[in-house]
Structures are given as structure tokens and as C-alpha cells.
Structure prediction request, 482 residues.
Amino acid sequence: MKSIKHVIGGAEVDSADGATFEDIDPYTQEAYATVALGGAREADLAVTAARKAFDEGPWPRMSFEERGKLIHKLADLMDQHNEDLALADTRDMGKPITAAKTKDVPRSALNFRFFADHARLAESQHLPNSAGFHTYVQHAPAGVVSAIAPWNYPLMLETWKVAPALAWGNTVVLKPAEDTPHSAYLLAELALEAGIPEGVLNVVHGFGPGSAGEALTVNPAVDRITFTGESGTGKAIGRAAAANLTPVSFELGGKGCNLVFDDADLDNAVSWAIEAAFGNAGQVCLAGSRLYVQQGVHDEFVERFAAAAAALQLGDPKDPATRIGPLASQEHYRKVTGYLDAEATGHAKVLGGGAAPGWFVRPSIVIDPPAHAPVLREEVFGPVVTVTPFATEDEAVKLANDTPYGLSAMLFTENLHRAHRVAGSMNSGNVWVNCFFVRDLRAPFGGFGDSGIGREGGAFSREFFTEARTITMRIAPEIAAA
Ligand code: NDP
Prediction:
């Protein structure tokens, strides 16, 4: 059986006490690898290695060109190992292999290329003034970064953190989610192969509370914590980080809405809505899990949407034709199917859907649940979508914003004025009009309300992963102190 170890200070290591846990393939429901189970000791060792690499090593002192070259080399190696990286995520969490190969892995490599280039080309402020002084701003690497990631887009979300952190000269300790340790381990190995110095990218496996994850949030030698996961976990990490005043960047849960107006292009709306609700088996923070459809097209939309959902192929995620794999773990399967109970749906009618053999859930469409129903209020994180009719634009906006989350919103309309008006009314960090999940890495990404703190992407990542230093110099020698 494959053995997945920590990567600390450039070496593959086991935990000091030899503890391991099993890496379960959710399709076979069997272990296919053993994983080193780290705790506070391994997390602290990794932070020490990252600290040493930052304080004494070449990485933060390299030019952007030198660092960028090594980061580009890593991206090239990721492309060369597309198959291994994709299969790692597929076996860890049931992601369909076609999506892993064509979207997750290429996008992960792009994250490295983009942030290396962005850091190299970024301008910083120069403020000449007429009073004989000159002020300029430096962006110094922040130091050691704890990066704590979820299991739904393992490699892609890990690289979204690791790439800007490295590009700006930081060193990193990455803790992948316990369900998805494999691709992070491969990534650390490829980073070493690319020539990125030891200790710059460390990977520690383990659990969150009381384990490696928590240890990475309380260590005073950590300078930044970047976390993606549930809002409740974000609150716990926020409390831990406050003790050391460690800055945090949080990308948290979501309960995305999707508004389909009477004047929408229905072919377009149905196909994006299907992707938004059921892509990655709905295990997407941005998922369009609350559909609101205007009365004039409601029945036709639901009929077409339900037919398209029923046609999605469930199966072995290693089969290139599979669109929906199993849910990532048994625990998650139980959580998602719980939202299809009569109590959770408020006794609403459910089209299609339900549990299938294995840890599969068929695309499930809950028709017009009552406003208080948990399926409509809480993040389900599975292939379950609610559909609620609405009459007017004002009503649609109110319904869309009636959530503590604020990560994503979508709207479908052919009316230009409405598109801008409604997009600008969404309490949401990301709004897609007539499309979904199109990302420009220069743009800020994050959420309103319970969906997060801060933004990452482009210059926003620089804000988080660097310390700004303002330098003012007297350039007119005749100026003396008053
Ligand atoms: P969790 O919050 O359960 O876990 C995320 C990571 O945090 C895991 O690595 C976990 O470790 C670790 N962790 C848990 N508790 C602590 C702690 N006290 N201290 C430090 N680390 C801890 O989220 P999931 O993995 O279940 O991911 C799903 C969630 O992520 C959903 O809510 C989803 O919306 C959100 N998400 C948000 C995105 C966004 O961009 N806003 C994008 C993708 C997902 P372990 O699992 O090993 O215990």
C-alpha cells in the first residue's frame, strides 16, 4: 500500500510516534494508502523548518526573476505529472477524473505561473513630492505562512494559497484536509524536484482541532494564516490567531443563489445552472444551491433542469465519462443525505435525487421549500438544490440576500439594465451574469458576511502575503531638521 509522508525541511518523514491513518478511496470505500498522522510536534517541526528557510535561506532574498524561474519549473512539472496529480484527487475524494485532468490540475499549474509573473511585474508606489523628500513603498515577504485547506478542490485550493505565498518570498507549511492528503504530498515532492529550496514548502498531515491544524494556528512563529473551510472552523481559527495577533485570510462557506429571470436565455441558464448545482457533486463553496426562478419561466425551467440533472452520469470517478462521483467520505455522505429528510426539506417535494448505492447522491431538486427549511438555510455541500419561484425583481433580490453567507451569486437575464442593477445589489463577493465560475486571477476573491475575511487574488494576495514598508528619504541635501 502506498505510504504518504510529511515533507518537512526537504525530507520525507514519518510522525515521531509512527502514527498513521488510512486514506480511503470513496468509490471503493477501501484504504489505498497510509498517511503519516501528524500532531502538534510535526506541525511545530515544520514551522521551525519554514522559519529557518525564511530567516536564513535564500528564498526570500532571491530576485523575483530567480524565484519565478523555479516556480515556473514547478508549474511545468505539474503539467508533466497531470495524470498522477489528477488521480490523487480523484482517489482521495471522488472527483471525476476528466474534471481533475482538464480543470483542477491545469488551473493549479496556472496559479503558480500567474502569481510568479504577477509578483515580478507588480508596480509599487513611488511618491515624489516637491518638498525635497521622496517616499516609496516596499512589499516585504511576511514570513512563515500556515496554509490550511479543505478537501473539495484539494490541489487547486492549496495552490491558490501556496502560489502567491511563495511568489512573494514567504515560506509555507501546508496542511491538507485529512481526507485529501495525496496531491499536497506530490506537490511538495515536485517543488523539491523543481529546485525550490528545502524548508520553503512543507506539508504536514493530520486533523484539525487538537491536532496538526490547530498547532499551525497557535504557533507564534507563524506570520500569516490562510484558511479555506467551514465558517465554524474559521471562527475557531480566528480565536486562536488572535492570541498572537496573526493576520488571517479566510475563505469560508457559502449558500450561493442563482436568479433566473423571465427574459433569460433558457438554454444557457439551464446548462450553467446544472454545472453550478451539480459540478463536483455540489461540493463547491460557490455552488448555486438556491435557485430562484421567475414565475413566467418557472415550470419550463424546472422541467428542463430536472431532465438535464437526471441525465448526468454517476459512476466510477476514474471513468472519463463520469460527471458525478461519490461524495468525499462516509461522514459527508451522511450529512448530505440528512438534508433530504422530510424535516430538513420542510416536507417539500424532491425531484429525482436521493441516495444511490455506495456514497453516491443523485442530483436532488427540492421544490419550493418553506423559508425556514434547513435545506434552504444551511450549506449542504452536495448535489442538492432548492428551487423557489418569485414574481418581481425586488423580491428576487430580497430572497437572494436572505442568508448570512455572501460568497457567490448568479443571475440570468438578457436585459442589460437589469443585469447591472441586480448584480450591484447582491451582498456577495462574486457575481456571475449569464455564466458561472469564470475566474480572473487578478480579481479579488472572497466573501461578504459569514463567507470570509479579506480577499485574495492579484494585488489582494500581495496585500496579505507581504508587509508594506514605507520608506521616505530626504533628497534635497539643503533641507535641515526644523
Ligand atoms: P473544514 O473547516 O472542516 O476543514 C478545513 C481544513 O481545516 C481542514 O484541513 C481541517 O482539517 C482543518 N481544520 C479543522 N478544524 C481546525 C482547527 N480548529 N484549526 C486548524 N485547522 C482546522 O472544511 P472542509 O474541509 O469540510 O471543507 C468544506 C468547507 O469549505 C465548506 O464549508 C466550504 O464552503 C468551504 N470552502 C470555502 C471555499 C471558499 O473559497 N470560500 C472554497 C472551498 C471550500 P481536517 O479536515 O484534517 O480535520
The pocket of NDP is lined by residues 148-152, 157, 175, 177-178, 207-209, 213-214, 217, 228-230, 233, 236-237, 251-254, 285, 379, 381, 407, 447, 451-452 (CB under 6 Å). DSSP finds 16 helices and 23 strands in the chain. The two ends are 74 Å apart (CA to CA). The first helix runs from residue 40 to 55.
